[in-house]
Amino acid sequence: MAFIRSERVAAFLLLAAAALGLLAANSPLGPALMQLQDAHLAVPGTPLDLSVGHWISDGLLAVFFFVVAVELKNEFAVGQLDSVSKAVRPAIAALVGVAVPALIYLGVTAGSDYAGGWPIPTATDIAFALGVLAVFGTGIPSRLRIFILALAILDDIVAILIIAVFFTADPNLLFIALAAAGVAAFGLLSRLLSTRLRMLAAAAMVVVALVTWSLVVLSGVHATIAGVALGLVMVRKPAMHLRHHLEPVTNGVILPLFAFSAALVAVPQVAPAELAPAFWGILIALPVGKIIGITLGGWLSGFVGPRERRPQLSLHGLLAAGALGGVGFTVSLLMNELAFAADPEVADEGTLAVLLGSSISIVIAAVLVSTLAASYRRLRALRLEAERRLAA
Fold first, then answer.
1. Do the Cβ atoms of 185 and 209 come closer than 8 Å?
2. Which residue spans traverse the membrane (predicted)?
3. What is the pLDDT of residues 80-91, one digit of tens each?
4. What are phi and psi of 48, to 5 degrees?
5. pTM: predicted TM-score of the whole model, two decimal places
6. Please, which residues have CB within 8 angstroms of residue 377's CB and are 6 or more apart in sequence?
7. Which residue from 374, 325, 364, 369 is spatially nearest to 150, judged by alpha carbons?
8. CA 16 – CA 196 distance, rounded (Å)
């Protein structure tokens, strides 16, 4: 299972699943698959009654967000974001990298009824971005890798906040309070994992996690927030251990299954002029907005903090980071489902726009990252040759 932990493999599986879903939706199997996706599965004796598609996006994807939250907590504790000085530059780049795509989308869709889709092009798929970096970035210095990793992590934080704040409708305060109690109980039980009661505690944590997730679903808050909350309150060391075991499942099953389900979209048989403004807003804002926003934010962040502590990032490096940020995929697809839940036709166009915009970003990122890596490899080779001649 070790190979599934690879960022390259995870990116390939995600892209392959999305492509397969799009092809399947536009094949003779398409109508049957979409009907299956819309079929409802209820849990007997409970109010839970979700479609197969929502069991995937609300249920399985909560596990992915749990893994993301555990990684976020670890980065803030002992990783790349464990101090203000480390976090400030990628934080500025991430925030500007969210604002610019949102503004571009709002500009493109001005005067239409699709302004609510502004969060869609703001997200970065951390798994896919790092996968592209792993494939094409051999030789890139660690300071740029660290910047891109921190940027993607902070981008995920913003995405989580957007989902929690803007995609919560008519919240049930009682269920929210009960879910909060479940989160607290989960965190307390995780403290027992290092004692003799660890087996009992682990079993109880599974039950509490399922109940908490159910309460969040019923509360009106998007269910993935349950995964985030549980990941943040779990004790760090056992949480990282659990993350290690869950990573092959998220990379090899959950994310590809979600990508396949989200990409089950029939390509609309309409002229480009008949596509909704939301399609063009996403398609333009995702690759273009992220490149402009992250590059601008990265440049502005270069004026923050003591000069001697500012890592030097070239324009080429910032452009590469911006292109990687434009790979939206997982979170953008989720936001598209949430933003246009009441308008399936526009949601389908939004899905196509996310896939196309992310694909454009992948191509641009592949070119920028590979040329950047080649230049660093040449510089390293020249330096080694100079050192060899001096030693001789």
1. no
2. 52-70, 91-108, 120-139, 146-167, 173-190, 277-301, 313-334, 354-374
3. 677 777 778 888
4. -70, 120
5. 0.81
6. 138, 139
7. 325
8. 44
Looking at this protein, which amino acid is placed at residue 358?
Answer: S
Architecture of the CATH domain 2-167+222-391: Up-down Bundle (1.20)
> Helix-strand-coil percent breakdown of the chain, rounded to 5?
80, 0, 20
- Cα angle 370, 15, 324 (rounded to 5 degrees) comes to 40
What residues have CB less than 8 Å from 136, skipping those under 6 apart?
365, 366, 369, 370, 373
Contact 93, 294 (CB under 8 A): yes
Give the H/E segment covering residue 42: strand 40-42
In the chain, domain spans = 2-167+222-391
- CA 321/CA 369 separation, integer angstroms: 8
Dist. CA 123–CA 329, nearest whole Å? 8
